[in-house]
Q: What sequence folds into this?
């Protein structure tokens, strides 16, 4: 903590009144609010980062070190035995490829289906519209575990089992996405659509050229949600993909869970490996993601 | 685009719901149409070193027979869910490895139909009633046996000048506790004895105290006084700090191994089973050994194990049965046991013994425990009501440790749970 910060904290009133603050550092002392904000932000980021850092450090530990009480922060040595041992039976590139294909494919499909459904529910008047919307919303309340078997049977009869399509198509229609987009589209003025109709635009053209560009913000939100959902999805991919070369990362990670012995050192090492692509993508695209959300947020 | 998407979706949903109700997808249809291709699927869960051993055996099988085996590894926790979904979609694997065959009894293939000569009567007798179906079918083959028993930290015993237990004249439970406590004091370890959070491991203690969840003829066992003595001893050990109470309380109603406490050198005696041998051979940084089970009223450990099964839905029943028979031939089981530090289930191998390439003495300690283990424990472990009862016992013991129930109440609760579990399977 710098001197000015200490001063600002211990002598808050004084720091604010004396506008002629002179210190070695120069510049104005930070306002109390700002200091508190930063302190809070730093504390929160440590809170969020701690498990990740802990996992990364622990991934170098042996089973014995993991069991040590009290646990040590740093591993004894940066031995890569866990990584090489686990990677022998862990075909990382295959799983990563599957995860990426499924995430991208399912997200594109989710966006296409959900925007169309939401547009229909928001802007067309037809009998039973509200009922259909309520039915769509109602499905939010049914967890996958309950309908797993019938959904699996449908997927099996459509020959989707044990193929990546089976991971992409069935989870594509998400009620949450429809709800999110519909509520946003309700706020768009009907005049825009009518004006486009008068100009002779077809219905699909209106949807593509007028509505979709105006829905940037919720589409961005849904994209992020969908990517997170599909990347972390476990139960459905587990049931649908049977051959190891169809596994996604979370399913592949769970393979290590056995009945009697759980090799946490391997699980930790492979968790770190699975985290890396996401971290790298975020680091590279950070600006774009943040700016994209900020821009579209302005509409 | 006048037809709104949700209508289509709703129609599709309705159709899907109707399809789910349609008959014909049931699994009791006897035999499925058989396919001609020479390729079978094997759904497997792994305990670690056995994965590579299985892969080695499979490649041997493929070379010898020209049949391709697709090994599909699923996490143990989701095994039942996966298989149930696949059975419902008429998409069952040809062969599966199971630890509990009861949820699938009606779906399992009678292996005697194809491989009676190779499989019938070959495996450990205790498992027979469990693997036999209502009409005498052979529903499953015990593919590996586990045996519970203590593992000890030899370094700590030596430092404390406590003699190691003698296999010919095993220690009593009281002697084991006394020895463990002495070693704990000298080495200043946190605990004296640790046990996995599992009703199955606790059954080892019950059996040593002379009783068991069920009697050999399948009625509720749990002798009042003997069970009470075991539970009291267990509670005392935990409450006095000789056993790690927090491991049981922390686990909630889930299985948890105490292997990390042993590996960290914080406990000299760890009651687990033979599956720890290969893991400890790799991970333990001290000298350790398998020890004979304590004899209080009775000697011996407690058995467990996995099974290989095929399904009526399988489209390659003959090949599946052939594969199961091949994997459990004397030669294959020997290889599997040597590479994965497993115990055999074949009667001939149990009596002849197996030479293990590493930690052979420890493995043979477990192997010789099989003969000392009372017959009713096999009947118990292979009883369809066992897992429910063992889980109830585990949860009830946690309640005793938390001070919610007395040991007397615990006996009543576990007896009631055993009764309920028995009624549930009838």
A:
């Amino acid at each position: 903590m710098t001197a000015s910060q200490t001063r600002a904290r211990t002598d808050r009133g004084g720091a604010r009144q004396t506008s002629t603050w002179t210190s070695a550092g120069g510049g104005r002392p930070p306002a109390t609010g700002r200091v508190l904000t930063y302190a809070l932000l730093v504390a929160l980021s440590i809170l969020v980062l701690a498990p990740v850092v802990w996992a990364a450090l622990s991934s170098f530990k042996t089973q014995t070190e993991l069991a040590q009480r009290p646990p040590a922060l740093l591993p004894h040595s940066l031995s890569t035995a866990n990584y090489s041992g686990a990677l022998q039976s862990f075909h990382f590139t295959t799983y990563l490829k599957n995860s990426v294909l499924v995430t991208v494919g399912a997200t594109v499909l989710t966006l296409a289906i959900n925007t169309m459904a939401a547009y229909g529910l928001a802007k067309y008047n037809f009998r039973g519209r509200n009922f259909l919307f309520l039915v769509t919303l109602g499905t939010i309340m049914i967890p996958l575990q309950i309908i797993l078997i019938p959904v699996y049977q449908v997927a099996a009869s459509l020959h989707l089992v044990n193929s990546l399509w089976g991971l992409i198509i069935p989870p594509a229609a998400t009620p949450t996405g429809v709800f999110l987009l519909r509520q946003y589209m309700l706020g768009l003025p009907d005049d825009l659509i009518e004006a486009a109709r008068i100009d002779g635009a077809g219905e699909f053209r209106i949807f593509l050229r007028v509505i979709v560009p105006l829905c940037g913000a919720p589409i961005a939100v849904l994209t992020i949600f969908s990517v997170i959902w599909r990347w972390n999805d476990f139960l459905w991919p587990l049931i649908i993909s049977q051959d190891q070369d169809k596994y996604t990362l979370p399913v592949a990670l769970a393979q290590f869970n056995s009945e009697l012995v759980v090799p946490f050192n391997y699980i930790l090492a492979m968790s770190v490996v699975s985290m890396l692509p996401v971290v790298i993508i975020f680091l590279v695209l950070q600006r774009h993601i943040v700016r994209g959300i900020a821009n579209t947020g302005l509409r | 685009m006048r037809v709104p998407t949700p209508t289509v979706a709703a129609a599709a949903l309705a159709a899907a719901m109707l399809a789910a109700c349609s008959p014909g997808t049931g699994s009791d249809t006897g035999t499925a149409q058989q396919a001609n291709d020479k390729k079978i699927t094997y759904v497997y869960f792994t305990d670690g070193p056995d994965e590579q051993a299985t892969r080695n055996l499979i490649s041997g099988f493929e070379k010898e027979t020209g049949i391709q085996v697709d090994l599909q590894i699923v996490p143990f926790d989701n095994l039942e869910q996966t298989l149930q979904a696949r059975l419902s979609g008429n998409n069952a694997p040809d062969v599966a490895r199971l630890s509990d065959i009861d949820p699938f009894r009606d779906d399992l293939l009678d292996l005697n139909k194809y491989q009676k000569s190779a499989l019938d009567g070959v495996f450990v007798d205790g498992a027979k009633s469990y693997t036999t179906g209502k009409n005498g079918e052979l529903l499953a083959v015990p593919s590996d046996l586990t045996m519970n028993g203590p593992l000890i930290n030899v370094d700590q015993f030596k430092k404390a000048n406590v003699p190691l237990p003698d296999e010919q004249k095993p220690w009593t439970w009281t002697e084991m506790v006394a020895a463990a406590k002495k070693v704990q004091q000298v080495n200043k370890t946190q605990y004296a004895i640790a046990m996995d959070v599992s009703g199955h491991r606790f059954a080892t203690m019950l059996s040593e105290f002379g009783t068991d969840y069920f009697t050999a003829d399948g009625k509720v066992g749990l002798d009042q006084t003997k069970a009470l003595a075991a539970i009291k001893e267990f509670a005392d050990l935990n409450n006095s700090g000789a056993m790690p109470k927090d491991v049981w309380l922390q686990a909630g109603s889930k299985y948890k191994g105490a292997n990390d406490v042993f590996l960290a050198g914080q406990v000299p005696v760890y009651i687990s089973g033979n599956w720890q041998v290969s893991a400890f051979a790799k991970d333990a940084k001290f000298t350790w050994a398998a020890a004979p089970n304590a004899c209080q009223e009775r000697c011996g450990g407690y058995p467990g194990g996995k099974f290989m099964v095929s399904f009526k839905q399988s489209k390659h029943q003959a090949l599946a049965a052939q594969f199961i028979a091949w994997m459990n031939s004397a030669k294959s089981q020997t290889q599997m046991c040597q590479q994965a530090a497993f115990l055999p289930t074949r009667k001939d191998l149990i009596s002849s013994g197996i030479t293990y390439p590493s930690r052979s003495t420890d493995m043979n300690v477990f192997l010789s425990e099989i003969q000392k283990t009372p017959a009713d424990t096999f009947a118990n472990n292979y009883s369809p009501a066992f897992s429910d009862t063992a889980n109830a016992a585990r949860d009830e013991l946690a309640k005793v440790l938390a001070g919610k129930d007395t040991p007397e109440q615990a006996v009543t609760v576990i007896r009631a749970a055993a009764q309920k579990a028995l009624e549930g399977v009838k």
